[in-house]
Design brief:
With 29 residues, the protein is mainly alpha-helical. The chain is built from one helix and no strands.
Length: 29
Amino acid sequence: MRISLFLTLVFQLVLAQDRIFEVHPYGRL
């Protein structure tokens, strides 16, 4: 169960980063 929760958290973090990069193209710099 803990592994599934960890994967969900990582997945949400990845989606959040993708959204931030889409909103702020220069966020990576």
